[in-house]
Amino acid sequence: MSQSKHVEARELMYSGALLFFSHGQQNSAADLSMLVLEALEKAEVAVAEDLLENLAKVFSLMDPNSPERVAFVSRALKWSSGGSGKLGHPRLHQLLALTLWKEQNYCESRYHFLHSSDGEGCANMLVEYSTSRGFRSEVDMFVAQAVLQFLCLKNKSSASVVFTTYTQKHPSIEDGPPFVEPLLNFLWFLLLAVDGGKLAVFTVLCEQYQPALRRDPMYNEYLDRIGQLFFGVPPKQTSSYGGLLGNLLSSLMGSSEQEEGDENPDDTPALLRPPLPVLCLWVRGGCGRHRRPVLRDRARRPWSVQRRGGGGPSDRRALPGRVAFARERLSGVSWLSAERRVTLQPPQACPVTDGARAPGASSLTFHECGTQGRGRGSPAGPGPLCPVLQPGAALEMPW
C-alpha cells in the first residue's frame, strides 16, 4: 500500500473512532483506536506533534476504567519512543498527564509529568493534589518526591522548576527560601549542590537533614541514585554503614573507616533506620505528668536498659539506639513485661536535661501500654516501656 493510502486509511480509522466515542460505543471506538496504532507501527511513521495530539485525544475519550485504555496507552508510548526501549515521547507524556489531571487521577498524572518536560504543569497539579487530598503536615512531601524523582531521571531543569513553582503557589507555604519546613530547605540546598557537584556538600546535607529525610524510607533510595549521578558516589554496596551514607563515607574515607564502624553498629545513620517505638519518661507528680527526655548523653549515645533479677544471661540485655527523645530499637524485648524493675546506666556522666542530679542509683518500674506511631503526637499517658515514678519519688542516676 502506498504512503498516501496509509495516511488516508489511518485518518479514516481515527475519524471513525471519534464518531463511535461520540455515540458511546466504547468497544468499537477502542478497536479502531488500536488499529490506528497498528497502522502507525507498520508504516513506521515518524513521531509528529499532530499524531501525538490525536493519540492523546483518543485516550481522553476512553473510559478511564476500561482495560483497553491501559493497552492503548502502553502501545502508544512504545510507538512514540521509536522502538528504542525508552519510556515514551515527553510530549505524549505531557498530554496524558494533563488528561489524567482533569480526571483528578493525580497519582498517574504525576507519573506522566515526571517523564515529560513540563515541570510547571507538574507543580500546579501537585498544589491541587496537596490541597485537595493531602494533610497540612505533608505539603513538603508532595514536592519532595517529585524533585527527587526528577533528579533520578537526570532532569535538573524540571526539578528546579517544579520546586520553585510549587513553593511559590502553594497557599500553605510561606515565602522562602529559607522555609519553615526543613525538608523544603533540604531540597533547596540539594538543587544548589547538584549544580556545584561537590560531594562534601552533598554529604553534609544528607547528615544534617536526617530527621526530615526519615519521614519517607524511599528518600534514601532516591538519594543513593542522585549521589551516583551527580556526585560520583560508587554504586550501592553492602557495608558496615549501609546505604547512601555508607557509600558517601566509603568514597571519602576508604575501607578503614568501615572497619571501625563494625565495632560500633549503632553509628548506622538514623536515616537508614525504619520508624522505631519511642522510649520516654513520664513523671507523675502533684502538678500532673511531665515528659522528660532523661535518656540522653552529650554524645547522643544510647543508654542501656537492663533487667534486674536472676534467671541467667538472657536476663541482661541492652536496648541499642540513640536518643532524640530516646528512639530505641525494641525488637526482642518481650521480657520487659509489666512491673519489671530496671536500672538505667549511661555510658558516660552527664546531667539530666532539667538540671536535676543526685548521687547513687535507683530502679524504675516499667508499665506496658500502647505504642506511639509514626506521625502521631505524644501519647496521652505513659507510652511503651515508660518508667513511671510515683509522686514524691526521685530519679537518681549513677554519676
Automatic annotation (TrEMBL):
Name recorded for this polypeptide: Golgi to ER traffic protein 4 homolog
Record has Transport as a keyword: yes
One Pfam entry name: GET4
Main location: cytoplasm
Family designation: Belongs to the GET4 family.
Gene name linked to the record: GET4
Keywords: Cytoplasm, Transport
Localization per record: Cytoplasm, Cytosol
Oligomer status and interactors: Component of the BAG6/BAT3 complex, at least composed of BAG6, UBL4A and GET4/TRC35. Interacts with BAG6; the interaction is direct and localizes BAG6 to the cytosol. Interacts with GET3.
GO cellular component terms listed in the entry, alphabetical order: BAT3 complex
BP GO terms, sorted: protein insertion into ER membrane
